[in-house]
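tokens incoming
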């Protein structure tokens, strides 16, 4: 199931985060997230309505293909009018939430020893390691999730967050932007992830792909076959095979 490739061409490993490097299922996590966030905004808006607006604005952000706007700018441009409150007030609430409440939503139970070993091995062997999570969350939230997974102490070459990125998965523009930021050619990279649509689509720009099957997400929207596949526990052997 693991495929040996020519060793000289590989320079960069892109790892998805949730369901790949950390054992976090977003379908289970999001209800807890919205419940906690709703309490922070309860003085302004009913929690269910808040969740509806956040999901709607996130959908607008995901579908944006304007390279002049960051994901954060697109999200806020759609979200702020829905609440009718000043940007400073809303940003302050979000910052307070991600600083104090969001860290409490996770635990070390999402840590994968094998994933940590794979990251450590990749860095020891000189590969660039990228956290190629879908950039729909602010950097603060991504850093907390890395901490939950025991990965907070690593110096990643790039972490894709919504403040910096201009596109989201599953658009190929996301992968093109990552390649541009890194100055890499597609054939120098591998994308490792658990989502058939969002992660395996990297193949469309020429990036080789490894499908992690533990928390497999397959919406039936793509027939792109990964070059290699396996479980999270296979990741150290995969890195060693490159």
């Amino acid at each position: 199931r693991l495929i040996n490739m020519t060793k000289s061409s590989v320079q960069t490993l892109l790892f998805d985060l949730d369901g790949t490097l950390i054992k976090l299922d977003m379908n289970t996590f999001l209800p807890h997230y919205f419940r906690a966030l709703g309490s922070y905004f309860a003085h302004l808006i009913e929690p269910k309505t808040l969740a509806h607006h956040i999901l709607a604005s996130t959908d607008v952000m995901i579908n944006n293909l304007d390279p002049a706007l960051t994901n954060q700018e697109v999200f806020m441009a759609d979200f702020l009018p829905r609440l009718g409150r000043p940007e400073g007030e809303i940003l302050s609430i979000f910052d307070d939430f991600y600083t104090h409440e969001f860290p409490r939503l996770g635990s070390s139970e999402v840590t994968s020893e094998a994933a940590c070993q794979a990251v450590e091995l990749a860095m020891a062997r000189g590969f660039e390691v990228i956290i190629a999570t879908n950039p729909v969350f602010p950097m603060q939230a991504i850093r907390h999730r890395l901490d939950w997974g025991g990965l907070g102490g690593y110096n990643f070459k790039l972490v894709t967050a919504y403040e910096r990125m201009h596109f989201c998965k599953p658009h190929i523009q996301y992968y093109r932007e990552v390649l541009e930021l890194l100055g890499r050619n597609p054939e120098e990279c591998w994308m490792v992830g658990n989502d058939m649509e969002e992660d395996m689509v990297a193949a469309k720009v020429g990036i080789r792909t490894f499908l992690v099957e533990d928390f497999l997400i397959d919406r039936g929207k793509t027939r792109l076959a990964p070059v290699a596949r396996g479980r999270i526990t296979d990741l150290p052997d995969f890195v060693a095979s490159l």
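note: Helices lie at 26-41, 47-63, 71-83, 87-101, 113-124, 139-148, 172-182, 235-241.
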